[in-house]
Amino acid sequence: MLDFNTNHKALLLTVFGVFAVLSIGVAIIPAFQMEGYEPLPEQEELTDTELKGLNVYISEGCVACHTQQVRNIEMDAMWGDRPSIPEDYVYSKQRLDIWRQSASLLGSERTGPDLTNVGVRQPGAAWQMLHLYNPRAVSEKSIMPSFPWLFEEVDSTRVREDDVVVAVPSQFLDNPNKKIVASEEAKQLVAYLQTLKQHKMPENSAPDFIPFSKIKEATVGRSASASKGLDGKKLFKNNCAACHQDNGKGVPGAFPPLAGSETVNNEDSEKMIRIILEGYNEMEGYGPMQAFADQLTDAEIAAIMNYERNSWGNEAPEVTEEDVRKVRDSKL
């Protein structure tokens, strides 16, 4: 029996042995295992800007509140299309510097939402910038801290052509006559966040989520069979509500309201369809809207539009999948 109280040599050797075993098991063996994985077909190396954004993500402590791992249990289905796999964390062996490889920022806390697929959920740079400057501007009850040091407050006359001006509502500004300009670090961080996407896997090879129980599974099945159509309200919440808000009132000075909008209530739906497909940046006093042509199907766009055109007091004729398809085809 070793007596660590008197045999200090045995104590040190035991501590070193435990450290060595843990280092091999936790760090070295997994590192060698990762060498055997290749990126998914659509996965690309991080650009220099995106790699710098990853450094900003680390230095600002984002990993303390956000995970980047979709577990294989059913409750995680809201964060991604499938559970995460080792290939999702292969960055083509890129390195931050001579000592460090690109970090796999799995995280351990979900004080904030998981960011595995945030590049799909919130692809718009304008939303991401405003969210970083003051999260309460886009989500009233958000507990996320603001990051004003990633931005600069300047006079309107000092705004340069290549500056990224953040559309901040006046109530969140100390001086409404000032403009908020994104720093290089803010642009790099947003560029990194936009890369966080779950890439497609070969057909029929994606892992499935494990349901909570047979009761839960039965409930989901009944819900799916009860409504064969798409849920426009759910699609709106997942793709549009972050900017235009659940009540359709938008964010003054940043994102326009949909409630009472002439475009939304117009009997001719073509302009509204084009805005969703192609994006829009011509509304004075508001930030740009990203295009959704590559993210939403014609049927999904029609479902979202019908929800918007008949909610919050709006009344407009129904839009069909064929209506959206005609507009999409006309711009090809």
From TrEMBL:
Entry keywords, A to Z: Heme, Iron, Metal-binding
UniProt domain Cytochrome c: residue ranges: 48-197, 227-312
Heme among keywords: yes
Transmembrane segments: none
Pfam families for the chain: Cytochrom_C, FixO
NAD is among the record's keywords: no
Domain of life per record: Bacteria
Name of the molecule in the record: Cbb3-type cytochrome c oxidase subunit II
Organism of origin: Mesonia ostreae
